[in-house]
Amino acid sequence: MTNQPGPRIGNYKNGEEGIYLKKGRFIRIMNILAIAGWLMVVPATVTRAVPSITATIDSNRIAVGATAELTITVNDASHSRPEIPDIKGLRVENAGKSTQVRIVNGQFSSSNTYTYVITALSPGNYKLGPFSIRAGNKTITTNAITLTVDGSNAAGNNIPAATSSSKLGDRLFLEVDLPRRRIFLGEKIPINIRLYIRDDVQISDVTYPSLNQPMVSLEQMGKPAQSNRIVNGISYEVVDFATTLSGVKTGKVNLGPFTLNCNMLSRQRSGDSLIDEFFSDYEKEPVRLSSNQVALEILPLPLTGQPADFSGGIGHFKVNASGGPQDVSQGDPITVKLTVSGEGNLNNIAAPQLVNSSGFKVYDAQRKSSENGQTVFEQVLIPLETTVKQVGPYVLTYFDTAAGSYQKALTGAIPINVKPNPNFKSDDFVDATLPASGEQLGKDIVFIKPVPGRLQLIHHPLRRQVWFWLLQFVPLLGLAGAIVFRQYRRSLRADTPKARALRAYTQAFRGISKCRNLLAHSQAPEVLEQLHTTFRGYFGMKYNLSPAGMTGTVTEELAGLNRPGELLQQIRDFFDRYDFYRFTGAKLGQDDVARLIDLAEQIIRSDNAVPVFTDSKTVAVRPEGGDFSERR
Amino acid sequence: VNAVNRCRKNPIVIMLALLTLSVFSLPTMARTSQSVSEIFAKANHAYKKGDYQGATGLYQQLLKEGYESGNLYYNLGNCYYKLKNKGRAILYYEKARRLIPGDADLKTNLAYTAKGIAAQSFGNPLAYLASLEQLLVICSGGFFLLALMLIISILATRMIRDENGKFILWWRVLLGAVGSLFLIGLFLTTVTWVDRVQPQSIVIGSGAVARYEPNATSTVYYQLPEGIRVKVLTTQAGWSMVQRADGKSGWVKTDDLERI
Questions:
Q1: pLDDT score at B81
Q2: Does the structure show a pLDDT above 80 at B12?
Q3: Does the CB of B30 have a partner CB in chain A at under 8 Å?
Q4: Does the beta carbon of B37 lie under 8 angstroms from any beta carbon of chain A?
Q5: Is the N or C terminus of chain B more exposed, i.e. has fewer CB atoms within 10 Å?
Q6: How many C-alpha atoms does B92 have within 13 Å on its Cβ side?
Q7: CB within 8 Å of A406: residues ≥ 6 apart
Q8: What is the rounded distance in angstroms from the CA atom of residue A595 to the CA atom of residue A546?
Q9: Which of B33, B74, B223 sits opposite A217 (nearest CB)?
Q10: Any residues with CB less than 8 A from the CB of B144 and at least 6 apart, and which?
Q11: pLDDT at B251 over 90
């Protein structure tokens, strides 16, 4: 739908908005409707011809490197594409497909033509075919074709592009244009790969030409240029891929073939231009084009006569020097800008050399840029003497490929005026590490190591050891433990009964341990006194009671602290037994004391195991060095 | 069972057991070390006689047995240099650089062998101050020391605090110094680790080229001189996408590369 003004056909309205159609478009739609109706009627009346297949070749005799066009035509059959098997000595490439449909006097016929380009790789007699296809339920077979390949075309000769591309080449071919056939190693020369497309050929999805040739290096191709040319009276559109080639190894090489992939657009035609306009469609056929080969010889640079100061430049160069300041004092730096321009390997060229460096401290030239066909270096010099009057000239030694010899490009000298500087000491600029004048130092790698050094297992580096990473948790655990312990210690400080209970328990066990030791060496009564002191000390300290004069009546006070009745009974029992031995004068044996010690230990353990409820707090005690008591 | 219980109760028994085990294992380690040294010495002898091929085989034998060291890689690099295999020479020098980055001889040989190969450096130069193993040990040691000092700070308050309960000056300085060293070590370890995990390779084949596509017929993007160092981005079906130090990427045959 459009509001564009134009011829109004009919009075079509759609609500408020009119529908306008251009006249041409209206007629086209009417045509489509008419053809559609006709096609529905006609198939009932037309008759189909018998399916057939033929194979032809444009030339039965070709030379090595040349190509021939094989055509397989399939008439009046719905079929599969013919498969061409690999033939040793020949290279077969698919060059596209075309379709024709005809209806003459109600007789319907169609044909599909498949084109293949056959490149001869080695001489001999070849039999092509017969080729078979499936047409419906039948298999139909072509005739066989003989092809003779002569070995007259020696490798290395330039194979003409028109020949190499055969008849397909007349329509679509690739051609290499190399201005010279002998180049020097590292020399850069332009190369053009041109794709010729005849006017009646349409292609799409064109790739950049590629070359599998390790002896040469190609720079990246830019956007190709397009133009029109007439070749042998035929008009072509030419796509020109331009780049630069340089040799990376010396020797002879057959440059090419460059290969390029594209899709050839072939229109299925019926013979009726009207039908073609509306119903025919483009079919994409992948095509791989190969260029001609070009013999190329990559020559080494001549070693004889190669100057010692050869810059590595190969081509033709000019050099220019400028810089300043020109009016300086001794010791002031002068920056010289050296511009190398010309054609050749500018990216790899070394800096021009100062012809006479006497009276200067010369620093190494630095490459600043390399673009737009020129490379710029900068060099800093410091005049050491007032007698120097100029900087330069500089010289660039390069290999001139046109002349085939080493050449020198010279700059002009830059005049300078050096004023004396009383504070300047030229000795500061003498490099002590430099060898004596004229001394030539050898260069090589440093000798091997006499010992293997610190050996380790390749597949067991420290970073893959689990134990190493687990070990890193130890400090963390230590830190966590320290923090917990500090908190515990703080809590003891803040909770006096708890701390007192802990101390009482620890001291009681020390006392009991002491009693057991004394029992082996001392008299039983003495041990009994010691045990009594320990026992009273424990309860006195833990429950904040006076240990002096503590007797079995202490259980009354303990009962108020929620001590179990059994425990209280044991305490009373201990004091009773103590009083019995203490006041009745009954004979006290070692076994009796040992039993009392056991009883005391049991009482203290039991007492410690049961928490004391004081002001709703629960006191839990852990002894030092003893067993853990139960905690809540 | 009794022996086990006795061990549990008495740590001295455990220590004695470990000591005995160590003493028994010492001759084995010594023998291995002796064997390695002998092979190394034989390889050195072959090198001195000019039998670089023989020396290479012996050094490679040590690698196959699972041993590596900076000196071993260095000597192997020398052998390949003498055999005019520049790519492998640089490869082994680079391997050595990861273990003995500060070695002056190694720096000299690597620079000399790689002369003329542009833009070799990748990543951070801080990654070559020490080997990763050394950094891990230093970093771990620093971590232990720092943790110990923190534990002391938490527990032993009287020794290191003044009357006001603040840490005394020298303790604060010491704690700060150890903490800073640990952080620096951690940073260097991280930088070095990141560098080591990057898949970097050396071009060992002469005439290697980087192409636009992973097939032999695609357009050559640039030449890769033997010995140049590249970063491997991806690998598929015998081709590796590599990146030069200047950032240009292309497909190279995997056979032309060897990982550092």
A1: 92
A2: no
A3: no
A4: yes
A5: N
A6: 24
A7: A302, A305, A306, A307, A310, A397, A398, A399, A400
A8: 26
A9: B223
A10: A474, A475
A11: yes
Interface test with B, best of A245, A255, A455 (most B CBs within 10 A): A455
Whole-angstrom CA distances from B56 to A93, A208, B39, B86, B89 are 49, 44, 11, 14, 11
Mean pLDDT, 10 residues at a time, chain A of 632 residues: 36 36 50 51 47 82 78 76 80 74 65 80 84 78 85 43 49 87 85 88 85 81 86 86 85 85 72 56 78 87 80 88 86 88 84 85 82 86 86 88 86 88 68 55 84 83 86 92 88 77 88 87 82 89 80 82 86 88 81 89 88 52 38 31
Q: Report CA-CA distances (Å) from B150 to A476, A480, B143, B192.
A: 10, 11, 10, 28
Burial of A384 (0-12, 13-18, 19+ CB in 10 A): buried
Give A177's contacts (C-beta < 8 A, 6+ positions apart).
Answer: A191, A192, A193, A194
Q: Which residue has the tokens 């000595």?
A: A89
The pLDDT value recorded for residue B18 is 57
Nearest to B36 among A452, A459, A461 (CB): A452
pLDDT at B59 over 90: yes
What is the DSSP code (8-state) at residue A79?
B
- Beta-strand pair B229-236/B200-203: antiparallel
B155 touches chain A (CB under 8 A): yes
ipTM for the assembly:
0.76
* Predicted pLDDT at A277: 56
Tell me which H or E stretch contains A152.
none
Q: Is A68 helix (H, G, I), strand (E, B) or coil?
A: strand
Q: Which residue of A has its CA nearest to B153?
A: A482
| Calpha distance A162→A174 (Å, rounded) | 9
> Cα–Cα distances in Å, from A394 out to A309, A353, A387, A410, A412?
12, 5, 19, 6, 7
Taking the CA of residue B209 and the nearest CA in chain A, the distance in Å comes to 8
Mind telling me how many Å the CA of A530 is from chain B's nearest CA? Answer: 30
A101 forms beta bridges with A110
**Nearest residue on chain B to A481, alpha-carbon basis:** B151
| Helix, strand, coil shares, percent, chain B, to 5 | 60, 15, 25
Number of cross-chain residue pairs from A and B with Cβ atoms under 8 Å apart: 126
| Beta-carbon separation of B75 and A471 below 8 A | no
The DSSP element (H or E) to which A409 belongs, if any, is: strand A405-410
Asked if A381 contacts A356 with a C-beta cutoff of 8 angstroms, the reply is no
Q: How far apart are CA B58 and CA A495, in angstroms?
A: 73
pLDDT at position A494 is: 73
Sign of the Cα torsion B181, B185, B188, B194 reads negative
Give the mean pLDDT of B153-170. 83
Decide: helix, strand or coil at residue B236. strand
- Rounded to the nearest 5°, which phi and psi values hold at B152? -65, -40
- Rounded distance between C-alpha atoms, residue B166 and residue B160, angstroms: 8
**Dist CA A214 CA A250 (whole Å):** 11
Give the whole-angstrom CA distance, residue A59 versus residue A539: 125
**Coil vs helix vs strand at B74:** helix
> Which of A214, A453, A475 lies nearest to residue B207, judging by beta carbons?
A214
Please report the DSSP string for A541-582 in residue order: HHHT---TT--TTHHHHHHTTT--HHHHHHHHHHHHHHHHHH
Q: Is B115 exposed, middle or buried (0-12, 13-18, 19+ CB in 10 A)?
A: exposed
Provide the b/e sequence for A49-60 (b: ≥16 CB within 10 Å).
eebebebebeee
The amino acid present at A547, given as its one-letter code, is P
Distances (CA, A) of A388 to A266, A321, A380, A392, A418: 77, 17, 15, 11, 7
List A241's β-bridge partners, or say none.
A193
> Could you please report the per-residue DSSP string of A214-236?
TTEEEPPP-PPEEEEEEETTEEE
Mean pLDDT of B81-105: 90
